[in-house]
From TrEMBL:
Pfam families: SpoIIM (PF01944). The chain crosses the membrane at residues 24-50, 98-129, 150-180, 186-207, 239-257, 263-284, 331-350, 384-408, 420-453, 473-498. Keywords: Membrane, Transmembrane, Transmembrane helix. PANTHER family: SLR1478 PROTEIN. The lineage of its organism: Archaea, Methanobacteriati, Methanobacteriota, Stenosarchaea group, Halobacteria. This is Stage II sporulation protein M.
Length: 502
């Protein structure tokens, strides 16, 4: 299949039943939320350690006797003197046990991230291949997570080892060359750059198509690499075309991201990359490889207009949102209790610093550019809602931890705010949409955790789990629309309307 036909199939597959594929790419956005649970547990352990040993009380007492407001940063000597006066008060917190806990939490976070990424990737590629065979993607993706996560982990480890090997061999060759004489070393460096670039390019091309080979051929690590190598040898033009497209897309995204990041809109670029670009590239390379193997049966173009699809999706999303809220009042009450409870905890935790350390909503609004801010608020908040909801598949705990973390941060920020009335006035207009939407995302995450637990225990089927993921997709579509409206209000109304009165 040529590249043009493959692109057509990719677009058609994305447009037909996006709810049967995109949830696994939503799940990819949830990996950091799942992984950071290790660090959260470690930090909770550090806090308990400080409380039990009395170290935190000693630090609070010492800090209460000091002037915590830092001097003008234009006077380096005054800043240094202030830092030297504060440092002794923090010495009780310099505990080997705390350092050990944080180190263990960091290692656990990295391990969780790698394992979760391998499992999610296995599900994504399994769902992609199923959609290209006109089968249900979510059911195949759930099965793929269980059956293929170890193979995908092996692929990622193998690629990292190969990259490290190429760099080590190149470094050794250059070192030997310079040991002989500088001219040989310079020649060796040039040769290593050229050969190394080609070697790394070959590695990347092989490992780009290997994930597709794992699912299409039901292969292991060695078999998938063999299949990818066979595809590249037989179809060098298709492999090169995919590589050009992939690099072009990544360069375009980087350029747009740089431009929007300057305006504060980087969050929307990351969101589009995760839920549109990533599945499109996975579909494209799998169409090319699957056609080479004669193992896919792509769907034809859809007759529906994009406008009709969008309107129909909005209506269905709204119905699913209302139905979910009505049938899960207990889960919503739980997320509200967790959010408000940790908000109060954050408020109390920073009490020793109130007056000495301040935050200011008015200062944060300096340089506010309404259109860019609205776009960034929407992208950031919808990303948080998606990640919170889909992280719940890890038995619900990460979703609750996300609500707790946001509550803690908001409580601490509010306690340190120097103009509370201005903060309340700013939050009120968009908060009536944004805050409930985030609570719904937390409840949705707990719901997915319950479903995943029942499936893991054999009390529910994979089809039921797939139904829950599909419903979650439509709920998140509606939450996205609510957060888009909230973003517009936060960008264009919230920063301004109260200024004549306060």
């Amino acid at each position: 299949m040529d590249l043009s036909s493959a692109v057509t199939v990719t677009v058609s597959t994305l447009r037909r039943r996006p709810a049967d594929l995109i949830p696994f790419y939503f799940l990819g956005m949830a990996v950091p939320v799942i992984a950071r649970l290790g660090l959260f547990v470690a930090l909770a352990g550090v806090y308990l350690h400080f409380e039990v040993t009395g170290r935190l009380a000693d630090a609070r007492a010492a800090l209460a006797e000091l002037e915590l407001t830092p001097p003008d940063s234009q006077d380096p000597e005054a800043v240094q003197a202030w830092a030297e006066s504060v440092a002794p008060a923090l010495e009780p917190l310099a505990s080997p046990t705390a350092l050990l806990l944080i180190t263990a939490g960091t290692v656990a976070t990295i391990v969780l991230a790698v394992l979760a990424y391998a499992a999610v990737s296995a599900g994504q590629m399994s769902a992609v291949v199923a959609r290209l065979r006109s089968e249900r993607g979510l059911t195949a993706g759930i099965a793929g997570v269980r059956d293929r996560w170890l193979t995908f982990l092996g692929l990622y480890v193998a690629e990292v080892l190969l990259w490290i090997g190429v760099f080590l061999l190149g470094s050794a060759a250059v070192a030997v060359g310079f040991a002989v004489n500088p001219f040989v070393g310079a020649a060796a460096a040039l040769a290593v750059l050229l050969v190394g670039f080609v070697a790394l390019l070959v590695v990347r091309v092989l490992f780009a198509f290997a994930p597709s080979a794992v699912v299409v051929d039901d292969a292991n690590v060695v078999g998938s690499l063999s299949g990818a190598a066979g595809f590249v040898r037989s179809n060098p033009a298709d492999a090169a075309a995919y590589l050009v497209v992939a690099i072009g897309v990544l360069v375009a995204i980087s350029s747009v991201a740089s431009g929007l990041a300057f305006l504060g809109g980087g969050a929307i670029v990351a969101l589009v990359s995760a839920v549109v670009v990533a599945p499109a590239l996975d579909l494209l390379k799998t169409v090319l490889y699957g056609s080479h193997r004669g193992a896919v049966d792509p769907v034809g173009p859809t007759d529906a207009r994009l406008r009709d699809q969008f309107v129909g999706g909005v209506r269905r999303g709204w119905r699913e949102l209302l139905a979910f809220v009505r049938r899960t009042p207990g889960l919503h009450a739980l997320t509200v209790v967790v959010g408000v409870g940790f908000g109060a905890l954050g408020w109390l935790a920073v009490d020793p610093f109130v007056g000495a350390v301040t935050t200011s909503i008015e200062s944060r609004l300096v340089g506010h550019v309404a259109p860019a801010a609205a776009l960034n608020f929407f992208g950031n908040n919808w990303s948080v809602a998606i990640a919170t909801s889909l992280s719940g598949v890890a038995l619900g705990v990460p979703a609750l931890s996300s609500i707790a973390f946001n509550g803690l941060a908001l409580g601490a920020t509010a306690a340190l705010e120097e103009n509370m009335l201005a903060l309340l006035a700013f939050v009120a207009p968009h908060g009536i949409l944004e805050i409930p939407a985030l609570f719904v995302s937390g409840a949705l995450g707990v719901h997915l955790g319950i479903v995943s637990w029942r499936t893991l225990r054999g009390r529910s089927s994979r089809a039921a789990f797939a139904d829950a993921l599909e419903n979650a997709f439509w709920v998140l579509v509606s939450l996205g629309l609510l957060l888009a409206v909230a973003g517009l209000i936060e960008g264009f109304v919230s920063p301004y309307y109260w200024r004549p009165f306060l």
